[in-house]
Amino acid sequence: MRILLTNDDGINAPGLKVLEAIARGFSDDIWICAPAEEQSGAGHSLTLTRPVRLREHAPRRFSVSGTPTDAVTMALRKIMPGPPDCILSGVNRGANLGDDVTYSGTVAAALEGALAGIRSVALSQVYRSEGVGDAVSFEAAAQWGEAVLRPLLAMRFAPRTLVNVNFPPIAADAVRGIRVVRQGFHDYARGSLVEGTDPRGYRYYWFGLHGIEHTPGHATDLEAIADGFVAVTPLHLDLTHESSLARLGECYRR
Ligand code: MN
Questions:
Q1: At 81, phi and psi to the nearest 5?
Q2: pLDDT tens profile 1-26
Q3: What separation in angstroms does the CA of 122 have from each of 100, 231, 246, 252?
Q4: Cβ–Cβ < 8 Å for 187, 213
Q5: What is the pLDDT of residues 154-164, one digit of tens each?
């Protein structure tokens, strides 16, 4: 089995090392292509206005100067001898729960794989508080990654779908199991805005993650994580709101 790994936190991200260790439990045919720098929050952006530079760090280990989507695109179009059997994106430093998924470079890299018809999984390790830097513990992901991925790597995904996995911010032996749940939603209107003045005297603004309201709801990814489970959520690319189609159509009918 040929596996492509990527990570929106960059080629040197601790979570990428965790993912590589998990993936090597399944295969020796591991390829890595990730952004050279952290690209968290890049979403599904594709670099179009600048050239993208490719760097080979070691055999089958590359970085690109662009986004997570650029990294997957370069791997599929340039680097790999043939399409991988699956793409694993992560393990991200931080949650990709609820409507985080549209901002997420981690989920977008898996989404790009799904668009290419490749079975793709996004993996993220939730942590409790900001300001912890590289001290985020990937323990739950490291210990539960194989159990989560084994069934996924043995099954066929529906076309244009991907699977989003989040590991709870607790010790591995405190994790209560794996739940398959739907996507929940945050209240982003409450997100914080940090303001300050830089060393040269200019004002700056920094979007924060504090104060975001969580709405766990019933059987959502947010609820599963709050309850101490690994959350597994199938996602699809079609954002059409089915029940509004007919009502909106009526608006334009004469
Ligand atoms: Mn990230």
A1: -70, -15
A2: 999 999 999 999 999 999 999 999 99
A3: 12, 11, 33, 39
A4: yes
A5: 999 999 999 99
Just give the CATH number of 2-186+216-251. Answer: 3.40.1210.10
- Tell me how far the alpha carbon of residue 42 lies from the centroid of ligand 1, in angstroms: 9
Q: 184 near 220, Cβ under 8 Å?
A: yes
Q: CB within 5 A of ion ligand 1: which residues?
A: 8-9, 40, 92
- 60, 77 contact by CB (below 8 A): no
Q: Do β-strands 213-215 and 193-197 pair in parallel, antiparallel, or remain unpaired?
A: unpaired
Nearest to 224 by CA among 173, 172, 165: 165
Residue 91's nearest CA partner among 242, 230, 192 is 230
Find the 25 Cα to ligand 1 centroid distance in Å. Answer: 23
Residues whose CB is less than 8 angstroms from the CB of residue 201 and which lie 6 or more positions away in sequence, other chains included:
none
Ligand 1 centre and the CA of 249: distance in Å? Answer: 39
